[in-house]
Design brief:
The protein is α+β, with helices and mostly antiparallel strands. Helices cover 20% and strands 42% of the residues. The chain is built from 6 helices and 16 strands. The chain has an 8-stranded mixed barrel with strand order 1-4-3-2-6-7-8-5. The protein has an 8-stranded mixed β-sheet with strand order 10-11-12-9-13-16-15-14. The longest helix has 13 residues, at 63-75. The protein is globular, with a radius of gyration of 18 Å.
Length: 279
């Protein structure tokens, strides 16, 4: 049903400042700077090997502008959305409808790059609350145009999304949706003593969805927490970032064997951000 984590959405008040900060963090140039006129938003996109990261800001009136403004008013800048790729929104719609979910038919969307005037088009399938469980998420099928890609990623730059972290109070319910309905592979389900928490690891298109359970008596609820980005050389990336004036923790061994990690502590617009090198 789902083919990828298509992209992640970070809501920002000042898109120019956010672009500057994420140029420094990622070490690469954005591939798209555009707007969604019907939604009242502008965006800046950084493209990676397995996904893209979208900085999204309100620049007018529309559903998108309201989403961004409400999120920032409540929590400030931050990670607000995860979008899953699908090869066929119509088939996905029919499957979810057949399962009994109240879901609206796919809608069309488009965006224009303000510099090149290129246009991309897509179909969106927005998920009902029973499936999104508090996370702004939807399915997307790209139908026309494509984002520019980078020929190479220098060793001191971010090249791919390693994993996205989601908090939940209901791991079993999360499995029922992401494994049994979305057909995403559950690679690991275990209690991590280091955190005294149950953790789930889903794998989709060589990317991990890491889920941490913190049980309570509330209605089943999930929330996006943070991002881990892969680099080829964490030592060279650490030096580049500190030279740029970004606060980064010392490099240390990761919890996973044969990994090195460091935490970016500034310029992230409230997104918990980890760098990871696999050796």
């Amino acid at each position: 049903m789902l083919s990828s984590i298509d992209h992640l959405i970070i809501a920002v008040k000042d898109i120019n400042k956010a672009e500057e900060n994420y140029r420094k963090i990622f070490g690469i140039e954005p591939v798209w700077k555009g707007e969604h006129k019907a939604l009242g938003t502008s965006n800046v996109i950084f493209n990676f090997k397995n996904t893209y990261c979208e900085l999204l800001s309100a620049n007018g009136d529309g559903l998108g502008a309201s989403l961004v403004d409400n999120a920032i008013e409540e929590n400030g800048d931050g990670l607000i959305g995860i979008v899953f790729g699908t090869n066929n929104t119509e088939e996905s719609f029919c499957k979810l409808k057949k399962l009994g979910y109240l879901i609206t038919e796919p809608s069309e969307g488009d965006g224009i790059d303000t510099n090149t005037k290129k246009i991309r088009k897509w179909k969106n399938l927005f998920l009902p609350p029973e499936l999104s469980r508090g996370i702004f998420s939807f399915l997307i099928e790209h139908t026309e145009g494509a984002l520019p890609t980078l020929d190479k990623y220098p060793k001191d730059t971010v090249n791919k999304l390693d994993h996205v972290v989601i908090n939940t109070n209901d791991a079993d319910g999360f499995i029922n949706i992401y494994r049994d309905i979305f057909n995403i592979r559950l690679a690991l389900d275990k209690v991590i003593e280091h955190w005294k928490s149950r953790m789930l690891f889903f794998r989709l298109n060589k990317t991990t969805i890491e889920v941490i359970e913190r049980k309570n008596e509330d209605t089943s609820q999930d929330s996006l927490w943070g991002l881990a980005w892969e680099v080829e050389s964490i030592e060279e990336t650490h030096k580049r970032l500190t030279d740029e004036g970004i606060d980064v923790s010392p490099i240390k061994d990761g919890l996973k064997e044969n990994t090195l990690v460091a935490t970016i502590k500034s310029h992230t617009h409230n997104v918990p951000t980890l760098l990871i090198e696999h050796s």
